[in-house]
Each structure stands twice: as C-alpha cells, then as structure tokens.
C-alpha cells in the first residue's frame, strides 16, 4: 500500500474527503518525525511505538576497492509493533 492508497482508505473509513485524509496522514507523519527528532518516543497503545536508536561508528569496506572506511555514527528511527498489531497480522 502506498500513500495515496492509504489516504483513500482513511477517507473511506472516516467518511471524510480525500483532501482532509491527506492532511491527516501528512500531519501524523510530520508529528512522528518531529517527536523523534527531539528524542521523544511516540506510543500508540495496541499499534506500536516509534523510537530512535543510536548506531555507533564502525569500520566497513568499500566493495568496489576493498579499502577500509569509517562509517559514521547515526541516530535511526525504529518501530516496535504492539500486541494488537502482531495479533492482527498473524
């Protein structure tokens, strides 16, 4: 499912226009991104939790040359599904 299909589904389920559903999807994704950028977590009971995880710097190899390189440390988004979502997918 892509974004436009999700917007269509939300519009149908919530009985709202596609334009309002698109605004809702955009607001949700922006809200989650803003919270994660601040270091907060977003917990939706039953659905799951969006958090961040720190990845330390590490050594790697350039596959083209075989030369060793340093891969920088990074903070990455993570999603941990909730029990209700896991059960729905089973």
Automatic annotation (TrEMBL):
InterPro entries: Hist_DNA-bd, Histone-like_DNA-bd_CS, IHF-like_DNA-bd_dom_sf. It comes from the Bacteria. CDD domains: HU. Keywords: DNA condensation, DNA-binding. GO terms for molecular function: DNA binding; identical protein binding; structural constituent of chromatin. The keyword Cell membrane does not apply. GO terms for biological process: chromosome condensation; DNA replication initiation; DNA-templated transcription. This is DNA-binding protein HU-beta. The lineage of its organism: Bacteria, Pseudomonadati, Pseudomonadota, Betaproteobacteria, Burkholderiales.
